[in-house]
Amino acid sequence: MKANALVYSENELGKIDGKVANGLVRYSEKYQIDGIIDSTKAGLDAGEYLDGTKNGVQIYSGVDDAIENLGYVPEYFIYGIAPLASFLDKKQRAIIFYAMKKGMNIVNGLPEFFTEDEEFMKKAGEYGVQIYDIRKAPQRKDLHNFSGRINEVDTPVIAVLGTDCAVGKRTTAVNLVAALKQQGINAAFIATGQTGLLQGSKYGIAIDVLSSGFATGEVENAIMQSYENDHPDIIVVEGQGALSHPAFTSSSAIVRGAMPDAIILQHPPRRIKHCDYPDIPMPTLESEIELIETFSKSNVIAITLNHEDMTDDEVENTIVEYEYKYELPTTDVLKYGCAKLVEKLFEVFPELLKSRSVIWQPQELK
Amino acid sequence: MKANALVYSENELGKIDGKVANGLVRYSEKYQIDGIIDSTKAGLDAGEYLDGTKNGVQIYSGVDDAIENLGYVPEYFIYGIAPLASFLDKKQRAIIFYAMKKGMNIVNGLPEFFTEDEEFMKKAGEYGVQIYDIRKAPQRKDLHNFSGRINEVDTPVIAVLGTDCAVGKRTTAVNLVAALKQQGINAAFIATGQTGLLQGSKYGIAIDVLSSGFATGEVENAIMQSYENDHPDIIVVEGQGALSHPAFTSSSAIVRGAMPDAIILQHPPRRIKHCDYPDIPMPTLESEIELIETFSKSNVIAITLNHEDMTDDEVENTIVEYEYKYELPTTDVLKYGCAKLVEKLFEVFPELLKSRSVIWQPQELK
After folding, report:
1. pLDDT of residue A83
2. Per-residue pLDDT tens over the stretch B152-196
3. Which chain B residues are Cβ-neighbours of A217 within 8 angstroms?
4. Do A211 and B211 touch (CB under 8 A)?
5. What is the mean pLDDT of residues B311-336?
6. Which residues of A14-39 are buried (b: 16+ CB within 10 A; e: fewer)?
7. Separation CA A151–CA A285 (nearest Å)
8. Could you give the C-alpha distances from B182 to B57, B150, B237, B330, B337, in angstroms and in order?
9. How far apart are CA B20 and CA B27, in angstroms?
C-alpha cells in the first residue's frame, strides 16, 4: 500500500528545476501522488501537462486548495523542486512550515538538511510530524569504501549517462527497466539521485552528497546488494550530470563504481548551454562519446533523446540523422518507447535472450 | 615563527601509509618538525633515512623518548599515518590520548574526525588541549559551488596528476614551485590534500571529504583566492589519486575545478598494482596520458618519476626510455631537481620568461 503524498513544485512543473516532481508524476512506486502544487498550472492534469496523456494527478494552486479538493490531508509533503541555490529562502521555508502545520510529514530531497535545522525541528515537534532528509548520507561508519567486488559481477551492467544534468537519464533508465521486465527479464534499477530514491527504487544512493572517497564504493555497494539479493539478469544504473560537466563529478564515481559493460547516452539536441551554467556550452555528442569510451573503456551502444524545444518532425529527423552519423540506435523513449534499446541489448548481451520469460522462450528456441 | 610539532608515524615512515610524515620531514612551512615517532627507525635522522641527506629531524621510539630527548613538550602532535581503514583501533587511540595527557594539541589529518568523537573531546577537555581536524570540510554555508570563474584566470594553471595514490604528486608540485620561485617567478601552490595543508599551504582544500557537488567549486575557489589575492605568475595544483583510479574521483574534481592549461604526470614505473588495491593493476602511462588529455582537453607536458624499488641506473635508463618513447621531458625531482620541468614551462608559457626576477631579466632580453 503506497503512502499518499502531495508534491510541491510551484512554478517549476515541467521545467528543469521541477525534475523531482516531473519524475514522480511519471513514475512512483513508493508514494501515491495525490496531487502537485503549482499555482501556474492549477486545474490541469499533471500527466497531460507533461506528456500529453492524463494520469489523474491533479495540479493544485496551494496546500489549502489541495486538501480541500482531496477531502483529506495526505500523509507526506514532498518538496519537489531542485534548485542550484544552496538554501531555501524565507518564503519557501514558510510553505513547508505551513504543510507541517496542516499535519503532513515532510520528505526533503534537497542537499540542505531540514533535520539539521533548528527551526524545522522545532516546528516538526510542535506539529507532531516527521521530517525525512532522503539525500542525507549514511553515517561514515555505514559507508562503503570501493572494494573491487564489482569485478565479480557477471551480470551485464548498463549505465545511462547524459550530456548534461536534468536531461532525462533517470526517465530513460526507469522506462528501459520496465520494458525489459515486460520481456520477462529480471532487470534491476540502481538509483543514484534523489528522484529515483523518492520514486521508490529498492537499491541506490544519492551520490552527490557523498565524498569522493565513498561515492564509488557506495555505487559499487548498491549494485552488489542488488546482484546478491535479487540475482538480476541485467542491472541498469542511473547516471548523474555528465562526464564532461564542468561542475559535477558524480558521473566519474558512477562509471568507476559501476564499471558498466555498456552505456546509453541521453542528449537534448536543442540545448545550447549547460543547465544552471548559461555561460558554458554543451558538449558535442562526438566529444562526449569519445570521453565516455576513453574513461570507462566501455562502449556507448545507443543514444536517447530529450525532445525539449523540438517538434515531432525534428525529433524524427534527428533520430534518422544520428543513426546514420553515429551508427547507433537512437530513440526518444517518452515518444517511441524502448524497443530499440531492448533489441540492442539482446544483440550486445545475447545471454539475455535465455532469460526472457518462459512464455516466449520455447518459441524463441525453436 | 613556526610551532613545534612531533609527527607520529609508527612503522610507516618512508612507506606509503606514512606519506603525511614523509611530506613533513621534507617540507614544512607551518610547523617546526621536532621529531618523528617510529620505533622501528629510532635513533636515525629522518631526512637521511628518507632521501640520504641529514636534515636534523630525529626519529624517536615513542612520545616519552621524544620529550625526554628534546627536553620540552612540543606544542603539537601530528598524526602522520594515512591508512585506508576507516577508523583507528583502540591501541592507536590510546597513543593519541597519551599525547594529549602529556599536554600536546592534536593535529589530525584523517577523515575520521576526533572533534566529533565523544571520548576524544572528553580527554581534550580533561587535559586542556585542542584538537584540530584539518581535513574536516567547511560548513555547507561556507562551501562554494562551481561558478565558471576559473575561465577568467589568464595565469597558467598546471596540475600535477599521477597514475596512483601516494606516488609523489605533492612532492613534485612543492619542489616545482620552489624551483620556479628560485627563478624569481611568483609561483603559487594549491594543496588538495591533508599533507599539503599540514605543510602550511596558503591556499587549498582537502578535497576527498567534499561531496561531488562542492569539490569542483572548492578547487576553483582556492585557485581564485590565490589568483585574486597574490596575482601569481603561475599556479601549480596538487593532484590526488589518479584519473583512472577505480576507487577515487578526486582527480576528476581537480581537473574540472582547476581547468589546467598543462599537466605534469607523476608515475612509479615499478609499481605493478594500485596501492591499497592489490588486485587492481596499475594503468599504463600511455592509457593514463590518453585519458588525461581526453578528459581535460589539455596536454601532458612532462613525466616525473617516483623511484620506488628502482636503482639509480634504472631511473636513468627509464628517463632515457620515456623521453624517447613519449617525446616528453622526464625527470625524478628528488634525484635531479626540477630544471627540466622549469625549462619546459618556459617553452610552453613563454610569458613566464618576462616574470623572471629582474636580476636575470636584462640578460635574457639582450
Report:
1. 77
2. 999 999 999 999 999 999 999 999 999 999 999 999 999 999 889
3. 247
4. yes
5. 97
6. bbbbbbbbbbbbbbbebbebbbbbbe
7. 29
8. 25, 27, 18, 21, 12
9. 11
Q: Are A250 and A205 in contact (CB under 8 A)?
A: no
SS3 at position B74: coil
DSSP letter assigned to residue B304: E
- Whole-number Å distance between alpha carbons of B261 and A137: 35
Sheet with B76-79, edge to edge strand ranges: B58-60, B31-37, B3-8, B76-79, B105-108, B131-133
Q: Which amino acid is at B228?
A: E
**Residue pointed to by grid coordinates 554555508:** B141
Residues in B closer than 8 angstroms to A111, CB to CB, are 140, 211, 213
A338: distance to nearest CA of chain B, Å? 30
Q: Let me know how many helices (H) and strands (E) chain B has, helices first.
A: 15, 15
**Single-letter amino acid, residue B116:** E
How many residues does the structure list for chain B? 366
Tracing cell 495526505 back to the chain, one arrives at: A74
Question: In one letter, which amino acid is A21?
Answer: A
Distances (CA, A) of A332 to A120, A303, A304: 41, 9, 5
**Which set of grid coordinates corresponds to residue A167?**
536531461
Cα–Cα dist A57/A353, whole Å: 37
Q: Is A279 on the interface with B (CB under 8 A)?
A: yes
* Rounded Cα distance, A169 and A333, in Å: 11
Q: How far apart are CA B185 and CA B358, in angstroms?
A: 10
Which residues have C-beta within 8 Å of that of residue A134, sequence separation ≥ 6? A107, A108, A109, A194, A197, A198, A206
Q: Which amino acid is located at A87 in the chain? A: F
**Contact yes or no for B247 and A217 at CB 8 A:** yes
CB B213 within 8 A of CB A111: yes
Assigned C-alpha cell, B252? 576528476
Select from B111, B176, B282 the least CA-distant residue to A145.
B111
C-alpha B283/C-alpha B272 separation (Å) is 9
The answer, for A208 touching chain B at a CB cutoff of 8 Å, is yes
CB A77 within 8 A of CB A127: no
Q: What's the pLDDT at B186?
A: 96
pLDDT at residue B86 greater than cutoff 90: no
C-alpha span between B175 and B180 (Å, rounded): 9
Enclosing H/E stretch for A294 = helix A285-296
Dist CA B262 CA B296 (whole Å): 9
Provide the 3-class DSSP secondary structure of residue A331.
strand
Q: Per residue in B237-296, pLDDT tens?
A: 999 999 999 999 999 999 999 999 999 999 999 999 998 899 999 999 999 999 999 999
A139 and chain B in contact, CB less than 8 A: no
Average pLDDT, chain B: 93
Computed on alpha carbons and rounded to an integer, the radius of gyration of chain A in Å comes to 21
Angle between helices B250-258 and B212-230 (to 10 degrees): 40
Q: What is the pTM of this model?
A: 0.88
Q: Which three cell numbers stand for residue B51?
A: 632521501
